[in-house]
Here is the input.
Amino acid sequence: MAAVACFGGVDRAGLTASKKQYPFGHGNVKWVSTQWLQDNLNDPNLSILDAQPDIEDYCAGHIPGAVHLDEATLRAPKGGLPAQYIPAEAAKLLFRRIGLDNELPVVVYSGQGAYTGTGGGLAQSMLAYALARFGHNRVYVLDGGLDKWRQEGKPLSQEFPRLAEGRFRPTVRQEYAIDMEQVKKLKDRGDAILLDVRSATLYRDKGPWCRAGHIAGAVNLPWRTLMVGDNPTLVKCDDEIRRILKDRGVTTDKTIIVSCGVGRESTSVFLLLKWYLGYPDVRLYEGSFAEWADYPKNPTVTGPDPYDRQPTGESR
Here is the structure.
């Protein structure tokens, strides 16, 4: 009998592939199901952040009680380099303004905007990473995001919540990230692996960056290969994820460095490895290829993955 592929904890035959107790995860970031969120909508200590791609999408319909936060407010140029995280004091003002507290749970979700028709799911992981990076201790990611919520006919609202100012206290967790010089020292060691999680096309060829290809030595693992094909916020089942990771040489005994184009796509894989699967040593190269390629002496390579076992999947 052929094996049945499973996605998001449910196989294609509709049978439960894995049962999890929600919130599920290992550390400051955990995952919750749409049913868990619906059951806890009236919890006065629970905050909900809507990261839909446009404010008009939020106005057209959002999960009841959710406040909108544009992921773009989290990053700005620094020294000319684009997409760098805002200072801790700026994060403090922003997160307090939307009522957050470090110790009270916050659910983050995104999805394709019903009004604009845009969005690829990365705002969800981007915002979850930023919250944890700045010191939040109870970040919950909505598995399946707003798309799954809508598909299940769960309630939507056009009302805006009434929020009191929060007491968020920023503490930048430097240990999550890795800088360019550290990447140079670690990437070619036998006990480390550098993952480029952009699409196979961008990994091989020319993208919007000033140079083509990828960081020399990087292995390609498109972030979408770990998510359900038609829903970039819905995690595939554990067995399928582990099979994909094993095929790329991503094992728990290695230091895993996750990189992409501008540090956005890599948040999805970083979250899954560090907090969903509990890998012990995962780092995110926040500067990613945009920073690396800006330095002419940094080696880059074009062409397919040297292992010639390229997984499919496109970034957004």
Observations:
- The CA atoms of residues 112 and 178 lie 31 Å apart.
